[in-house]
Design a protein that fits this description.
Length: 235
């Protein structure tokens, strides 16, 4: 048996899964030190810097997961065409990569500027909302239609995977909204020191993100399982 025809793309896709989840675990662990009142403000600032650095990895993985997934779908002989017509022609795959790299540039800029430039933040939000809408529609159609896009291999597992990806992006936006009070409170901590009110705001902001974090972890793990097992697929 020879090598898989697109094995390296599968390796990339799985690597993105691993670093997405692993990076998120690192962010969660370091956030516990940010919330420790017993540490000095400088030590907590160092923990925050580590947390922020680790958080860039999952953001990169989230974005690149889209074009790597589209590339795999285009290469898959079981679902790459319908009625003899390619579902994912080369120009569509190339356009997806161009879009994703542009989105990645915006996401990295937003991460590094920490919201100091409203236009960058708004652009990133708009892109994510657009991706959420498009992916949700594609996922629902793929799971509901008898032969979505004329594909006869029962790709409902793929619809579920796309829906989970959409859910993870949505949860990420929930985290951003929940963390909005964090920045001003941490700035107060660094400027004037800890107070009960500052500690409550920090803890409420960070711990309020936990339900969204759990949704992301569950979505990433479930999407990985669907991608590997492909339940119900006729291959």
């Amino acid at each position: 048996m020879g090598p898989h025809p697109h094995g390296w793309w599968i390796v990339l896709h799985l690597t993105l899964f691993v670093f997405w989840l692993g990076g998120d675990l690192g962010v969660f662990y370091s956030s516990r030190f940010v919330l420790k009142p017993s540490l000095t403000p400088q030590a907590r600032a160092t923990a925050l810097a580590v947390m922020s650095g680790l958080d860039l990895g999952p953001k990169v993985c989230l974005v690149l997961f889209l074009p790597s997934g589209v590339t795999l779908m285009a290469l898959d002989p079981h679902g790459a065409s319908a009625f003899g017509i390619p579902l994912f022609p080369w120009w569509f795959v190339a356009a997806t990569w161009v879009f994703a790299l542009a989105w990645l540039a915006v996401a990295v800029a937003e991460h590094r500027t920490h919201g100091r430039f409203p236009m960058v933040r708004m652009t990133d939000w708009a892109i994510r909302i657009g991706v959420i809408a498009a992916m949700a529609c594609s996922a629902i159609y793929t799971m509901a239609a008898a032969e979505p896009f004329g594909v006869t291999t029962n790709p409902r597992w793929l619809g579920g995977k796309i829906l989970l990806y959409t859910l993870a992006i949505t949860a990420g936006l929930g985290i951003r909204r929940t963390l909005r009070p964090f920045g001003p409170a941490f700035g107060t901590l660094m400027a004037t020191g800890s107070t009960p009110e500052v500690e409550r705001t920090l803890k409420k902001s960070v711990d309020g993100c936990l339900p969204y974090v759990w949704v992301i972890w569950a979505s990433v793990l479930a999407a990985a399982a669907l991608g590997l097992l492909k339940p119900g697929a006729v291959l």
